[in-house]
């Protein structure tokens, strides 16, 4: 395997050995086999990287399969929204401010990185507050912040919009591409052809929205959910907690529920202040997820109160409907129907240096993580 990581010390830890032993026992008890494995899906880019980096798949029994869902916000940003971002960058007197992982995402013709090379004013920021400072220092320019992210990042962007309104900075705007997680889990639970037995729920998002946000998935879909931390032992412990629920369901002694392994950071109600901020600044709509389609109730755009800061209302951004994805199966991978090596482009025409699709661009994308840590050396 590539990546230069020595897993021997971790795998020899007594805690890791005990958890893996428990996983083996529970998987067998739940009836998981190589032909009909128990399928657990994580929906968090940080989990995606940790699972690959620490070789967790290789430690688990053949009757258990870990799948990476659409937990990378860059990966699920639709092609047409990438095209709109590039088109906005080409408008005179516009400054595009973006997190770095958006720079190389391929649009229909080029990328933000390419637009900057051709003279567009595209700037990488580490906080949306940096974009607010651009607006202060460049009153003659329109600053457009690319609002990509889940509930982890959207509160700080909402706070930036409120700060801009308070200061009267009318030249600060946001292109709102925000997505939300709980309704997406419900969609994933209903995907035909890939039955899911449990969700490893995202820790960072859950700090904001709280673990109770997943109760409808557990109760209505009868799919256990566990909010898990990001250390390898956290993830293994979360898998144990999911398997214990699955065993109790299959043996008729329990029902699907939401459990919290990451109790040091996550509460049932989440962060009330951040949630109120989101409710004030954003409104929900039916959003498109790249490679997946429209997912009801999963998009966030600026509410009527803050509509003046919506870049789509301020700029005439007219782009044609994208032609297609050039054979990229990123959407199928995020739905759990395939693993990255199943794609004919993986590791050949699609690499981190020359990505075909978004799952290989973002460092949190499943293809990029698999390429770096789990790809078999040739």
How would you sum up this structure, described in words?
With 378 residues, the protein is an alpha/beta fold. It has a domain at 79-180 and 270-314: HypD, alpha/beta domain 2 (Rossmann fold), CATH 3.40.50. 39% of the residues lie in helices and 16% in strands. The chain is built from 17 helices and twelve strands. The protein has helices at residues 8-12, 14-30, 45-53, 56-59, 79-89, 112-117, 128-137, 154-167, 182-189, 203-209, 215-221, 232-250, 272-281, 311-314, 330-334, 358-361, 366-373, and strands at residues 38-42, 64-68, 94-98, 121-124, 142-147, 172-176, 178-179, 198-201, 225-227, 258-260, 282-289, 293-302. A five-stranded parallel β-sheet has the order 2-1-8-9-10. Strand 9 (225-227), helix 12 (232-250) and strand 10 (258-260) form a beta-alpha-beta unit. The relative contact order is 0.17.
Structure at a glance:
This protein has 378 residues and is α/β, with parallel strands linked by helices. Helix content is 39%, strand content 16%.
Task: Provide keyphrases for this structure.
single chain, 378 residues, alpha/beta, Rossmann fold, 5-stranded parallel β-sheet, 4-stranded parallel β-sheet, 12 strands
What is the CATH homology-level superfamily of the domain at 79-180 and 270-314?
A: HypD, alpha/beta domain 2
Class per helix and strand makeup: alpha/beta
**CATH class categorisation of the domain at 79-180 and 270-314:** Alpha Beta
* CATH topology descriptor of the domain at 79-180 and 270-314: Rossmann fold
Helix segment tally: 17
How large, in whole angstroms, is the Cα Rg? 21 Å
Q: Largest beta sheet: what is the strand line-up?
A: 2-1-8-9-10
What series of H and E elements makes up the topology? HHEHHEHEHEHEHEEHEHHEHEHEEHHHH
Rounded average pLDDT: 92
Helix percentage range: 25-40%
According to DSSP, the number of beta strands is 12
N- and C-termini, Cα separation: 9 Å
- Stretches where pLDDT is under 50 for at least 5 consecutive residues are 1-5
Query: Which sheet architecture does the biggest sheet show?
Result: 5 strands, parallel
Can you tell me the CATH architecture of the domain at 79-180 and 270-314?
Answer: 3-Layer(aba) Sandwich
- Taken as a percent bin, the fraction of beta residues is 15-25%
């Amino acid at each position: 395997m590539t990546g230069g990581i020595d897993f021997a010390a971790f795998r020899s830890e007594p805690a890791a050995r005990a958890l893996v032993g428990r996983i083996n026992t529970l998987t067998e008890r739940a009836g998981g086999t190589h032909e009909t494995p128990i399928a657990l899906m994580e929906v968090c880019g940080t989990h995606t990287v940790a699972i690959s980096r620490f070789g967790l798949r290789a430690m688990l029994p053949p009757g258990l399969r870990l799948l990476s869902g659409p937990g990378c916000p860059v990966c699920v940003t639709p092609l047409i929204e990438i095209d709109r971002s590039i088109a906005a960058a080409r408008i005179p007197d516009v400054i595009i401010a973006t997190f770095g992982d958006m720079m190389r995402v391929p649009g229909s013709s080029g990328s933000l990185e390419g637009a900057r090379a051709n003279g567009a004013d595209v700037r990488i920021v580490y906080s949306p507050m940096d974009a607010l400072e651009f607006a202060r220092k460049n009153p003659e320019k329109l600053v457009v912040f690319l609002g990509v992210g889940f509930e982890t990042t959207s509160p700080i962007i909402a706070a930036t919009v409120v700060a801009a309104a308070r200061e009267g900075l009318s030249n600060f705007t946001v292109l709102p591409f925000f997505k939300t997680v709980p309704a997406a889990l419900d969609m994933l639970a209903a995907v035909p052809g890939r039955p899911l037995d449990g969700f490893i729920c995202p820790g960072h998002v859950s700090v904001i929205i709280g673990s109770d946000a997943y109760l409808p998935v557990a109760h209505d879909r009868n799919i256990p959910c566990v909010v898990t931390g990001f250390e390898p032992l956290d993830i293994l412990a979360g898998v144990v907690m999911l398997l214990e629920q699955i065993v109790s369901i299959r043996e008729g002694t329990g029902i699907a529920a939401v459990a919290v392994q990451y109790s040091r950071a996550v509460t049932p109600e989440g962060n009330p202040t951040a949630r109120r901020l989101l409710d004030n600044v954003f409104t929900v709509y039916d959003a498109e997820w790249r490679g997946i389609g429209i997912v009801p109730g999963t998009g966030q755009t600026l509410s009527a109160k803050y509509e003046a800061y919506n870049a789509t209302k301020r700029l005439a951004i007219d782009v044609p409907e994208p032609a297609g994805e050039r054979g990229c199966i990123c959407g199928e991978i995020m739905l759990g129907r395939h693993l990255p090596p199943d794609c004919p482009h993986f590791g050949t025409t699609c690499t981190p240096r020359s990505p075909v699709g978004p799952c290989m661009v973002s460092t949190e994308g499943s293809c990029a993580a698999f390429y770096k840590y789990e790809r078999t050396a040739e």
